[in-house]
Design a protein that fits this description.
Blueprint: H1 3-25, E1 70-77, E2 80-87, E3 91-96, E4 99-103, E5 115-120, H2 128-141, E6 145-153, E7 157-164, E8 167-176, E9 187-193, H3 198-211
Antiparallel strand pairs: 1-2, 3-4, 4-5, 5-9, 6-7, 7-8, 8-9
Length: 214
Amino acid sequence: MGLRGALVAMALAVVGALAGGLLAGSRSDAPAAFGPPVPVAAASPAVPTDPPVEISPDPDYPALVRGLPTTRVVVGTAPFTLSVPIPDGWVRSDSAAGEWRWFPGPPDEVKYTYFLRVRLIGNDYQSIESALTSRIAALESATAVEDLDVEYRSRDTFVSTYVEGGYKRVSYERFIGTGPADPTAYASIAVIGRESDRDGLSALLEKVTAGARA
């Protein structure tokens, strides 16, 4: 090989070596370089959540107190009647068949304060425990009731809180038979009010149920 041929061969070899190095540097099995990890902000909550229930301030009205004087009142039609002690001066409102309510003043003026409710339910022929369970289920499914919380439950009584009409309500409700040994629910007696009325609600429920006579 002449001198010219030798120089050309050497140049080709150098070019081939350079090309091979470039290709090797671009192969897919070469380690990739990454920068430090950067946190990514979530686009939406990981778990869907319900919006909080809005609660209006309670009406500015004196709290229900213990020891209210009462007068006996008879509701219903013979032979299905109930005699109960009702706070003096409270206003009666017959809201539905077999149901009576009493308010400390005109119902429209004392709405969402507190009231007493009596229902006659003997024609349902349920045990006291079944009637209580059915009542809680009705509250759970009521479209007007939100955030129901059953705080206490016994065989014949339950205490609950819930939001209705934008106001938080506290309810004490008891189911009674025609006598101490009667397991069939004859009536339900409830007192419903605000957090500030709890002490008075509890006392009034005890007084009315203790004095109820079928």
